[in-house]
Design brief:
This protein is α/β, with parallel strands linked by helices and 512 residues long. It contains 13 helices and 24 strands.
Length: 512
């Protein structure tokens, strides 16, 4: 496992929406058409278009130069690793419909912009991992090239059945093709092709190897829809392919971080021979959002059947945590990518009924749970957004400090420092101490120091007795609350007696 991840706080950036460092490379109105729709240039303070309005072709001008310019902001916040959504040439703003894996999109500044960003991040002691979808390309990719928007139709598999790229996709004899989840602009790649495997990950100049090497020197990969890649009916090649990908990546950089996207149980991929980590929706993100009062991502679907989702109790949360952690080698648990917000789900704080106190508890749990916490850009300043569609979590970053939630920003800074400083939060043990009603408590600990989280979702003030003796706390242990909320707390016979206000979360530092 890459040891550096244990000390990392990630910052997740959707590039088009973070910062515009070079207006000269912005996408212009009607600059090109994709799937029959034109590009749209947006002003930075405008709202993103809904899909039916903009078809993911509305652009704000964020680029890699913009990210590089904001490194001082990121350092002051306290993050030390970036996860950046796809930057390779593509038609849409999200760029999961790749046109060319071997070149950074010119509207993000091209390959040289990545070199400059990577060098500056490394000079500042920060890591960078890039996002890529090698499960599918876009229909405009030069290998596929359905409509000839960017390449002549003499190029690519769709219009040329005899082309060498034809075997890279799934075609029938009527020129129909398989697309990811039926999205016709995202044709699925066929890993039965050995030539494709060479181009994507086996050859020395393959996609996954190229960007790990000088002059780019990225520190790892996040693989989009990793759970379904290299799987088609009776051809279940995914385990073989992922083992080969891991071998190829680790040959170039043994410390590279491999993160796969999976929204449900990822255990199949977390055995040490495929991924290092998953996007931890299953083991962390969805459970804590449910505990915070949001119906879980999957419970939303029961409404169609006239059913109503129940609240998540502390007992349920503890069970969900342990059902996942108990099956993971702890060395792997310590490098999982822990997020509660992302570019694919609505931001928790944009939901009505989610108070700041509730959200504060979620953030404390994120920074103290085994694994690497990941801040989705703008969460630290409580950026605006909507919850009805994915576009609602992709608003442009706010740079006017007068509009920042300064309490939330300072709160994040304290937690970032703790994570990077404290061994208990990097590689310490984990134990759930208490889970009753709507109050959960757990500890991260070494033999000399511990951090105890006590998080309530009760709508009234409560007093709880936490059996801290389980991790070695005694009446003589030195105990402080990290944020100064120490009122009416004491230890008696190894029992931590805590008074909690409604929806409050406390974080105790204990020195044995």
């Amino acid at each position: 496992m890459p040891e550096w991840v244990k000390k990392s706080v990630f910052y997740h950036i959707f590039p088009d929406r973070f910062h515009n460092g070079n207006p000269e490379n912005d996408v212009k109105d009607n600059e090109y058409f994709f799937d029959g729709h034109p590009t749209i240039k947006k002003k930075w303070n405008e709202k993103p278009c809904e899909y039916e309005e903009g078809f993911c072709l509305d652009f704000f001008g964020g680029d890699l130069e913009g990210i590089r310019e904001k490194i001082p902001y990121l350092k002051e916040l306290g993050v030390n690793a970036l996860y950046i959504n796809p930057i390779f040439r593509a038609a849409t703003n999200h760029k999961y419909d790749c046109i060319d894996y071997f070149n950074v999109d010119p509207h993000f500044g091209g390959n040289e912009a990545l070199v400059s960003l990577s060098e500056e991040l490394h000079r500042n002691g920060m890591k960078i991992i890039l996002d890529v979808s090698i499960n599918h390309t876009g229909t405009a990719h030069k290998w596929f090239n359905k409509d000839g928007e960017f390449f002549p139709k003499t190029v690519g598999a769709y219009n040329n059945p005899d082309s060498e790229e034809r075997e890279f996709y799934y075609f029938d004899n009527k020129n129909n093709y398989h697309a990811w989840f039926g999205v016709k602009t995202l044709p699925t790649l066929n890993y039965r092709s050995q030539k494709l495997r060479d181009i994507i990950y086996r050859a020395e100049n393959s996609v996954v190897r190229k960007w790990l090497k000088p002059p780019y020197n990225i520190d790892g990969w996040r693989f989009d829809v990793g759970f379904c890649m290299a799987r088609m009916d009776e051809y279940q090649m995914h385990q073989e392919v992922w083992r080969e990908i891991r071998k190829s990546i680790k040959e170039v950089n043994p410390r590279a971080y491999i993160v796969g996207e999976h929204m449900t149980d990822s255990m199949e991929f977390l055995r040490g021979d495929m991924w290092d980590a998953c996007m931890n929706y299953f083991g962390f993100g969805f459970p804590v959002r449910w505990f915070a009062g949001e119906n879980s991502h999957f419970d939303q679907r029961v409404k169609a059947f006239g059913l109503k989702a129940s609240r998540c109790t502390a007992e349920r949360l503890a069970n969900m945590f342990m059902q996942n952690l108990a099956r993971l080698p702890y060395q792997m648990a310590l490098v999982q990518y822990n997020m509660y917000d992302s570019h694919d789900i609505s931001r928790l704080h944009n939901h009505s009924g989610i108070s700041y106190e509730t959200r504060r508890g979620v953030i404390i749990m994120q920074f103290t749970f085994p694994g690497a916490p990941a801040i989705y850009y703008g969460d630290e300043i409580s950026i605006n957004g909507t919850t009805q569609s994915v576009e609602g979590c992709r608003y442009p970053m706010v740079w006017d400090e007068e509009l920042h939630d300064k309490n939330c920003l300072e709160f994040h800074k304290v937690l970032c420092q703790l994570k990077q400083r404290e061994k208990a939060l990097q590689s310490g043990g984990f134990k759930i101490l208490y889970a009753k009603g709507y109050v959960i408590s757990y500890a991260r600990f070494t033999d000399t120091k511990a951090y105890i989280v006590v998080c309530s979702q009760e709508d009234k003030a409560v007093n709880v007795d936490i059996p801290a003796v389980y991790i070695g706390v005694t009446d003589s242990s030195k105990i402080t609350e990290v944020f100064g909320r120490f009122r009416n707390t004491c230890v008696q016979n190894g029992i931590l007696k805590v008074e909690l206000q409604p929806y409050e979360c406390l974080l105790y530092e204990v020195i044995f």
